[in-house]
Amino acid sequence: MALERFTRDHEYVRIDGDVAVVGITRHAAEQLGDVVFVEVPEAGRKLKAGEAAGVVESVKAASDVFSPVGGEVIEANGELTANPQWVNEEPEGKAWFFKVRIADRSEIDKLLDRTAYEAFLKESA
Amino acid sequence: MKRTPLYDLHAALGAKMVPFAGYEMPVHYPLGVLKEHLHTRAKAGLFDVSHMGQAVLVSDDGRYETVARALEALVPADVLGLKPGRQRYSQLTNPGGGIIDDLMITRPLEAARAGTLYLVVNAARKEVDFEHIAASLPKGVRLEPEPDRALIAVQGPLAKDIMARFSPDATRLNFMAACTTSLRSFACRVSRSGYTGEDGFEISLAGVDAVPLARLLLAEEGIEPIGLGARDSLRLEAGLCLYGHDIDETTSPVEAALAWSIQKRRREEGGFPGWDRIRSELAHGPKRLRVGIRPDGRAPAREGTEILSPSGVPIGRITSGGFGPTVNGPVAMGYVPASLAARDTAVSLLVRGKPLPGRIVDLPFVPNRYFRP
Fold first, then answer.
1. How many structural domains compose chain B?
2. Global ipTM
3. In whole angstroms, how far apart are CA B278 and each of B76, B270, B282, B345?
């Protein structure tokens, strides 16, 4: 069972072994509205935790997607760039952005679990 | 924060409200910006534009010439030549030829209103405009703001069928024509105009009547409430300027590609603020020009994006840009040197530090469908 973590910038990360799958949360997708453009990082790119790695744009606004953990991008979701509306349809499913091989597992401890993320959403509402 | 007379209706319809020009306005309803945009082009949309500034210019002597000449001292449009029941788009210009605001000017059809003109200006500029106009008027002409009136736009290919069920008079209007009529029991000033590029109507009425009329209109088949988000993408695809973005106190009407709104007599006679610059730009061409720009890829180039020549030299900035739902791709407008403004000229758009290719295109992005039989 993969470990789920969240950031205050509304990314989720699903961790399985040393691989993290990164995307934006359902809450973020709902706030953005209809997503019309997505940019994902190239495989092989080395990311620091908190670095802007992707872009998601709706008809309303453009947002960066930050990598919650540092490491090398091992795969990007090329199908998502051709189907940006997936972010609205299944933000935490087929609309993942990229996979990172985690360099430093201690970074995971700085992220929020689902309960803490949902509490954060309530606080900021 | 101010509210329009339709505020409670927006809330009841589930709108997401945002601050805009000092008002709490609906940015979208549950349908969302994209579907609201497409719905307006396919069927019909209802827009609350009551935040805009409405006013009447009145001459004490009841003569049209008096009020028209007073306004001609402030705008480059031919107001004297406006026929009863017709309207014109123009700009309030400053002495340097920049644009204080853009506005709609309507000459009432009714003989009883002979010495008056109806004005509609932008929400964010209404205080500035009204002060400027009032301070510039000659004796015997006065400006009467109408803060208690609402303004509702009905836009889209089904607009005329919907309006026909309320007022046959309204559907006999051509594009940029206006009349006074009753919609059911509500006294309204109706014009065949809008801000979407579609056929449509703008309805001015007493604020207290706005919710009942809007509810009746929304009960019709094929019409949905549309928020400011889609209003912006619709006007961008239609190539229409947004004040404070595409035009401001530094841009002249000629640079903004609005020279079509300056009629022949005014070009020759002048008599409005900024004529020196505008005359010179009409004769020799402006230094820069507002153009349409299509990024080649899928990435939108937003307002503020730097425009470069293909070799990387900065030549201008995007003033409005985003995703065009009907175009199904990114669309933008911006200013470039007039020498680089020709259709199909290649440009480069600096998006998040990366130069993306694009090209100059004719405006509008979507052909307009105004009712001009």
1. 2
2. 0.87
3. 9, 9, 6, 26
